[in-house]
């Protein structure tokens, strides 16, 4: 194969579809297909996915060293097959920090949106009330409905369509050339293969070793490992990509040797700077019936907290839940191998709230949630005896008679005791530390990493839109002189200017990729 992509997830699917228009591509996905599973495909069953902990579950549970329960995707489409469906762009500062071309970014986002995303036509009663409560809590201005990341309150996009059906990233295989792509499911990559480096030359990647569903060990090879247009690309996610690099001999030398792994490249930065956005989730029983909804509106505060809410579904027709996420974050940890078995979770620490800034943002976010719950807009959907994080109830909130310092101290303790995750962990293979600006592994030929592991921070309110965009963008950026994108008439214009421009959309092909169990 010209390209071997490890992981058919949120980034791997659009990446493979794009490459297949010209190159022979193999996608190796360790999970199953999301299609035909109503717990994945239907919005009303969303919570059922989180409760599934069986060996065939599309989610693999792991715990950080702090004891926070977390999950990582194990299914074609990756996180886009199991998440709450939020689709929102990265902030402009994130795009600038990565040095991305805004014109190509815009073009790539819209290529994705033509297939898997849309902005809801209307909001249900609960989502309308929640949205109004954010505005009454002072999270302004009202930015209406938009994909853009803007301070204030907005309605954002979703990968659930108007009928409640999920559109995972694997739907982007509609763009693929079916004669050039093969997708293998239940195919777990064990390690990346390297040829012996000659004196003065970097190691060269020539293939991967993987096991199939029956446990048979197999190998897949690059057709032209000496050429630039022939690579192994890791899209396995922020946990598995640094883990795979280490299992393949790329990582901290002393640690690898302690596990009996031959060191291909002593690379201390692999596995460092792991981060997960601290979050708080508050269950608010409603005296009124609520519609089935995942997060459709968000309050983006000026101080770095994002506030969202969902309702109904498997939690019950009178359940609502309001969440707060700390952006960034500033606190980071690390990842290292527990064993040499790829199926075993590595040891991961995120050091939640190690940096005081993260705790202050969480305090501000929970305070904003309380103000929203106390607003007139939220009144039809909460009981007067609803308890509040700062103490007391909606009818008799402790904050009325407490100093700002006392409220902050109470909320700080609440944040630390109640911290959870929204599954936006990232890091481990950072840009300019492990990979270069084109996401190629520094010092290794024909190997690239493209997923959340390259991020310094989590983009926007939810990273999936940006991850899908990058699956398209990275190849346009790396191969601008080829004719792989001859269907996009304005691609070359983006190389002449970094001004944002609107361009024609790519027509959706009627063909699909061949997916093999």
TrEMBL record:
PROSITE patterns: GMC_OXRED_1 (PS00623), GMC_OXRED_2 (PS00624). One of its GO terms (molecular function) is oxidoreductase activity, acting on CH-OH group of donors. It holds the Pfam family GMC_oxred_N. Its cofactor is FAD. FAD binds at residues 10-11, 29-30, 75, 189, 452, 463-464. Disulfide bonds join 362-415. The keyword Transport does not apply. SUPFAM superfamilies: FAD-linked reductases, C-terminal domain (SSF54373), FAD/NAD(P)-binding domain (SSF51905). It comes from the Eukaryota. Signal peptide: none annotated. InterPro entries: FAD/NAD-bd_sf (IPR036188), GMC_Oxidoreductase-Related (IPR051871), GMC_OxRdtase (IPR012132), GMC_OxRdtase_N (IPR000172), GMC_OxRtase_C (IPR007867). The keyword Ubl conjugation does not apply. Keywords: Disulfide bond, FAD, Flavoprotein, Signal. Residues 73-96, 237-251 form the Glucose-methanol-choline oxidoreductase N-terminal domain. Belongs to the GMC oxidoreductase family. This is Glucose-methanol-choline oxidoreductase N-terminal domain-containing protein.
